[in-house]
Design a protein that fits this description.
Subunit structure: Monomer.
GO molecular function: AMP kinase activity; ATP binding
Number of strands: 5
CATH superfamily: P-loop containing nucleotide triphosphate hydrolases
Largest sheet: 5 strands, parallel
Structural class: alpha/beta
Distance between the termini: 11 Å
Pathway: Purine metabolism; AMP biosynthesis via salvage pathway; AMP from ADP: step 1/1
Shape: globular
Protein name: Adenylate kinase
Function: Catalyzes the reversible transfer of the terminal phosphate group between ATP and AMP. Plays an important role in cellular energy homeostasis and in adenine nucleotide metabolism.
CATH architecture: 3-Layer(aba) Sandwich
């Protein structure tokens, strides 16, 4: 079983690359953003709980996010592996993911980080904002704030996974095909 954590700053191309990787390696793609949207749209108990935090402008607690992820993973007992996109976002979530995987007899195979300069990423997101419908994709100060949050909360995962020997940085600048090839080379070498 291959379990990949795909992360990088907002705009690094995680969602785009996840589409290619899930097909190529027959992985089950779990995106926390998609999980939130599904659970909220369908008024599930977890969705209602998450919405109550979002509506107050608060972050959804790790416990709610983790439970959504565990519930989704449980729906795919025969998968060849998972591609986690947007999760974990902090050390507590990484620990919870490891514990969950271990409870199933699985483990994280690798964490692959798409790396790119902030200025390039800001321009990517502003361009994406022209069609995404997301208000925060059109507000440069909001975009830059997302990088501050990433630096404070998510960047510590680099050391977390390096200590486990599972961290693999990949250059996230270039054509979609070039980046897909770089990611595939890492996965094929595992």
């Amino acid at each position: 079983m291959i379990n990949i954590v795909l992360f990088g700053k907002p705009g690094a191309g995680k969602g785009t690359q996840a589409e290619f990787l899930k097909e190529k390696y027959s992985l089950t793609h779990i995106s926390t953003g998609d999980l939130f949207r599904y659970n909220i749209k369908n008024n599930t108990p977890l969705g209602l709980e998450a919405k109550s935090y979002i509506d107050r402008g608060s972050l959804v607690p790790d416990a709610v996010t983790i439970k959504m992820l565990e519930d989704e993973a449980a729906k795919h007992p025969d998968t060849k592996g998972f591609l986690f996109d947007g999760f974990p976002r902090n050390i507590a979530q990484a620990d919870a993911l490891e514990q969950f995987l271990e409870s199933k007899g699985w483990s994280t195979t690798a964490t692959i980080a798409l790396e790119a300069d902030d200025e390039v990423l800001v321009q990517r997101i502003l361009e994406r904002g022209k069609t995404s419908g997301r208000a925060d994709d059109n507000d440069e100060s909001a975009i830059r704030n997302r990088y501050v949050v990433y630096g404070n909360e998510t960047a510590p995962l680099i050391d977390y996974y390096k200590q486990k020997g599972k961290f693999h940085p990949v250059d996230g600048i270039g054509s979609i095909a070039e980046i897909t090839t770089r990611l595939s080379n890492v996965i094929d070498s595992l």
